[in-house]
Amino acid sequence: MPCPERHVIILGSTGSIGTQTIDIIERLNQRGYAFSVVGLAAGKNVERLAEQIKRYHPYAVCIGKETEGEILRQRFPKVRVFTGEKGLRELARLDEVDLIVNALVGAIGLPPTLDGLSLGRTVALANKESLVVGGELVTKFLSEYGGAILPIDSEHNAIFQCLRAGRLSEVRRVILTASGGPFLRVHKEELDRVRPEEALCHPNWAMGSRVTIDSATMVNKGFEVIEAHFLFHLPYERISIIIHPDSVIHSFVEYHDGSLLAELASPDMRIPIQYALTYPKRVETGLPRLDLEKISRMEFETLDHEHFPAFATVLKAAKQGGTSPAVINAADEVLVERFLEGGIPFTGIASGLQTILSRWESAEANLKEISSDAGNQDEVILSTLLAADRWARKAARYLSF
Length: 401
Ligand SMILES: NC(=O)c1ccc[n+]([C@@H]2O[C@H](COP(=O)([O-])OP(=O)(O)OC[C@H]3O[C@@H](n4cnc5c(N)ncnc54)[C@H](OP(=O)(O)O)[C@@H]3O)[C@@H](O)[C@H]2O)c1
Fold this sequence. Notes:
The chain starts with a strand and ends with a helix. The protein has helices spanning 16-30, 46-56, 66-75, 84-92, 110-118, 129-145, 154-162, 196-199, 209-217, 219-232, 270-278, 309-320, 324-340, 347-370, 377-398; strands at 5-11, 34-41, 60-63, 80-83, 99-102, 122-125, 148-151, 171-178, 239-243, 249-255, 260-264. It has 15 helices and eleven strands. The protein is globular. It is an alpha/beta fold. The longest helix is centred in the last third of the chain and has 24 residues, at 347-370. It binds NADP nicotinamide-adenine-dinucleotide phosphate.
């Protein structure tokens, strides 16, 4: 029987996950699937977006700035062109969409996730910031509107797969693996002097720049703990971390009977992306396979909190809940940018996050008053989170070292 046509929107189509999603869609369509790309969204890369429009003929797109939107309207008069953050939300609410792949980077990914879920849609989620910034709202929308999230992040995708073997009530804990990034073996005293190009060299994964730096500081692992907390409804005490430099095991689920289930695969994000697109089926599309005979051994070690102090700060914000994770995320986004521009040392990211989180404790009360008059309850919460995000960006931009 031929596969039914599935209308897909890819938010962040020009990035690392976005382009790999397109690769998978092409592979699946060659094997009888019928994915039709009806919407695409990018930030700045107007040329790559234009190439994608020519190849996939979406009926709507979104680009960051109005000036670039105008260029696209002139070049593609039949395509609806939205712009900016509002445009992302309009795209997520287009009619007749079966699946939204959210591959945006940053807090900007949260509103379109909520818009998609509010229409009961399925969101294949790479944008971890949706859950880091707005995990409580996302959970609420999932239970109220009946949509679904299929996790793309490799650790959560692994857990999602391992959970098919048992019930959530049978789970003792989940264990997220962490490669340790490029500085696992670098002496703590040398971290002050590492350069952006060294931090951008992840040993196992080729990813966008922010998530690569976040992997080097271990902020990313903190975000993934938050992601797991909301996706799998587990308290923070039942989410553990283990350093696994080989990146062969993508995570574990430990059940009450002592069984530990793991998902192993080549470190290739197309595998979890494909799983999300074909779920609950599994399909051969010629992706690289893991050759167990070439893996002579696998290593595991405990996370060294002194070496990676940012992890504890993210976890502190996670446990505080409310707006604190939004503050940490926004501050991190800016501090990573400042590090990449050569403006602050690598260790400034961790120390900056600590400072900003403690300043937030006294600033928060004022912010609540600012945002208490915005529409319905969910919009009030969203605007409060976004106001916290703006506060943290400003604080991080002007933080002196
Ligand atoms: N890459 C990985 O292997 C990987 C693995 C696990 C999880 N993730 C998560 O997946 C998400 C995406 O990561 P990535 O590595 O694919 O990032 P990336 O390569 O930097 O791509 C980000 C995408 O978002 C778009 N974008 C950025 N700002 C935007 C804005 N203001 N408006 C509209 N679009 C905007 C970018 O457009 P332009 O490029 O056109 O500006 C690009 O298409 C992140 O949350 C990351 O943590 C990634």
